[in-house]
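In the design runs reported in the main text, the only information available to the sequence generator was the tokenized backbone. The following block is the verbatim input for one such run; it is reproduced so that readers can re-run the procedure and compare outputs position by position.
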């Protein structure tokens, strides 16, 4: 009984776990010395090609630790409360609970809960085949252990290599085995909108039409701890539905729970279809309370962005935008494994207001922007949606505040559209140490698209947005900004070394081996590149039609330290 409550109200997969985990512990104990050597070859037995996806992300140190040290598994079963002792240095123990396992196209994310902060553990992902009474006892070799991929900073989740289909996953024989839930059939985030006490729920799996309002009467929200027990659930009608963002009234008793700040076990929320064949999506979403916006102390301009493994570009982007008037950054981190946390921490030490939000969800860019816009509304009058390689440029020396002030007195203006120019490698063959604004000065002549700065207060409540454009409340207007006043320099085609990462990211999304001739028709492909990540011989001179040194000159004037000749984001050269 006690055990059931601990594992989150007795989900289906928690049942029967004690039997299988003690069996598993025995197998693990007996086979320990064997495991590390069979793990990799065993992995191929399942006939799935993991190699191209997994190898680049495994750190050798972790692999070594697994190969040489089995104390983690050999340790006697510690207690029924699934306590894992921290391995190195101390005998402090802490408890760990796997809240959820979610299966993504290339890995499984385990969401964890700790009794204290996560020490550096060499965690191991344990896999167990679907229970099959006729084979499981005779083929223990079908069990796998693989090193977990642990980020270099404290976080609430760790990643495990993809589980073979049907396998369950765990981190210790003491913990229950979980069957990973698929990422594309899931309620994954929720926000409590304090402006009218509604709950905004982000879900995957209904395949709502893009860019359209859907019929909200077909949905309702469900609040509770265990969706398998309808008796204990609260439902409330949906007010809007679009792009898999459902807004519902919040039941008063749920509101009450959230008003007490320290709710230890907030309920989950999910979305249910109504009528025949009704389904309730599984959920990992506990509504998060947002700050009510107050006009006082509000920032004039904030930025929302989504990124993955681009931390090295952040200092230039943030220091520059701070100078022209951005006051706060919301970074939606799509599962980076670079040093993003340290980079953000050092920017914070220099008083830049930057926050990072984990957003590992697949194909959810629009939802991420909607999530960010709602969150930013409590802090910011205007929010820009730009990428880390995009820089707002005001050729006339005005700041963003000068420009925005003109629109603050026109409350019917909800969106400012800004033209983007795409810059090419500008003759460079290696990454410019001065950064992108000084390094790249040649671009295509025609603008490629535009980006928006929006007033989050006047977004349409459905939060529909299409490629960076939000629908606005009825009666609200947008304006196209004059190119002479403000544009965006988009350093889109950088030196090959940088560009090829972007290329890889795009193609890799659903293709294990990115050289497969798939996605060939994708509009995201760079013109003329085909599927080969091989540097075209004329790359450095491509995408160059107009010399545009405006931002370079402004940045050189405004930022270069006269003493050292360096820009603030430039790494000090070796002085010896
Ligand atoms: C280990 O536990 C013992 C007894 O609780 C304690 O005296 C000792 O200081 C602990 N050692 C470390 C390194 O925490
Ligand atoms: C919240 O806002 C939505 C959209 O404007 C509206 O449909 C709904 O009725 C509001 N809910 C409450 C509780 O006021
Ligand atoms: C939201 O709910 C709280 C608690 O029930 C109530 O005090 C508050 O007035 C409500 N706010 C709105 C905008 O309805
Ligand atoms: C995050 O990155 C993965 C892998 O590149 C991709 O599949 C996914 O769609 C991205 N998510 C968002 C929200 O862009
Ligand atoms: C911008 O300011 C700098 C220095 O204050 C000045 O040299 C430059 O002429 C100004 N540019 C414009 C377009 O006003
Ligand atoms: C603000 O509006 C005034 C009047 O239309 C105009 O003269 C001025 O240049 C504008 N300033 C900016 C920064 O757009
Ligand atoms: C850009 O300027 C360089 C150096 O002045 C010149 O060689 C080149 O032809 C120019 N490119 C374009 C596209 O105007």
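Verbatim output:
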């Amino acid at each position: 009984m006690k055990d059931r409550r601990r594992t989150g109200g007795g989900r289906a997969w928690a049942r029967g776990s004690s039997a299988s985990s003690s069996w598993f512990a025995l197998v693990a104990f007996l086979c320990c010395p064997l495991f590390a050597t069979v793990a990799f070859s065993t992995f191929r037995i399942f006939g799935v090609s993991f190699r191209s996806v997994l190898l680049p992300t495994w750190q050798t140190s972790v692999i070594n630790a697994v190969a040489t040290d089995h104390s983690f598994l050999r340790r006697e079963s510690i207690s029924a409360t699934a306590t894992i002792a921290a391995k190195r240095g101390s005998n402090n123990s802490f408890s760990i609970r796997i809240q959820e396992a979610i299966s993504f196209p290339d890995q499984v994310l385990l969401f964890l809960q700790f009794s204290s902060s996560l020490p550096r553990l060499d965690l191991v992902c344990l896999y167990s085949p679907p229970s099959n009474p006729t084979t499981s006892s005779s083929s223990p070799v079908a069990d796998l252990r693989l090193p977990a991929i642990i980020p270099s900073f404290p976080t609430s989740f760790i990643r495990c290599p993809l589980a073979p289909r049907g396998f369950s996953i765990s981190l210790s024989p003491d913990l229950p085995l979980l069957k990973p839930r698929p990422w594309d059939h899931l309620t994954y985030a929720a926000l409590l909108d304090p402006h009218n006490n509604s709950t905004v729920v982000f879900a995957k799996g209904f395949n709502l039409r893009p860019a359209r309002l859907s019929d909200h009467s077909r949905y309702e929200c469900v609040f509770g701890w265990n969706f398998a027990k309808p008796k204990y659930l609260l439902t409330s009608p949906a007010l809007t539905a679009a792009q898999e963002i459902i807004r519902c009234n919040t039941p008063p008793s749920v509101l009450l729970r959230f008003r007490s700040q320290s709710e230890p076990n907030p309920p989950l929320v999910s979305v249910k279809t109504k009528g025949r064949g009704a389904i309730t999506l599984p959920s990992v979403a506990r509504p998060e309370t947002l700050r009510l916006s107050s006009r006082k102390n509000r920032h004039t301009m904030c930025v929302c962005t989504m990124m993955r493994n681009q931390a090295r570009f952040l200092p230039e982007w943030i220091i520059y935008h701070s100078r022209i008037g951005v006051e706060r950054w919301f970074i939606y981190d799509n599962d980076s494994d670079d040093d993003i946390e340290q980079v953000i921490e050092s920017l914070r030490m220099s008083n830049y207001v930057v926050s990072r939000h984990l957003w590992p969800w697949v194909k959810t860019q629009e939802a991420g922007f909607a999530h960010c816009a709602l969150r930013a509304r409590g802090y910011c009058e205007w929010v820009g949606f730009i990428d880390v390689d995009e820089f707002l440029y005001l050729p006339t020396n005005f700041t963003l505040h000068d420009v925005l002030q003109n629109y603050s007195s026109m409350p019917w203006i909800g969106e400012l559209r800004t033209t983007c120019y795409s810059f090419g490698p500008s003759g460079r063959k290696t990454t410019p140490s001065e950064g992108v604004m000084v390094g790249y000065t040649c671009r295509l002549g025609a603008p490629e698209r535009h980006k928006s700065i929006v007033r989050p207060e006047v977004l349409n409540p459905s939060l529909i947005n299409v490629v960076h454009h939000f629908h606005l409340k009825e009666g609200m207007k947008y304006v196209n900004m004059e190119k002479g006043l403000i544009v965006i320099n988009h350093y889109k085609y950088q030196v090959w070394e940088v560009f090829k990462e972007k290329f890889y990211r795009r193609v890799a999304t659903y293709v294990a081996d990115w050289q497969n001739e798939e996605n060939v028709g994708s509009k995201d492909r760079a013109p003329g590149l085909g599927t080969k990540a091989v540097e075209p011989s004329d790359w450095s001179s491509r995408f160059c039609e107009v010399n545009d040194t405006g931002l370079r000159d402004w940045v050189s004037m405004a930022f270069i330290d006269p003493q050292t000749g360096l820009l603030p984001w430039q790494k000090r050269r070796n002085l010896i």
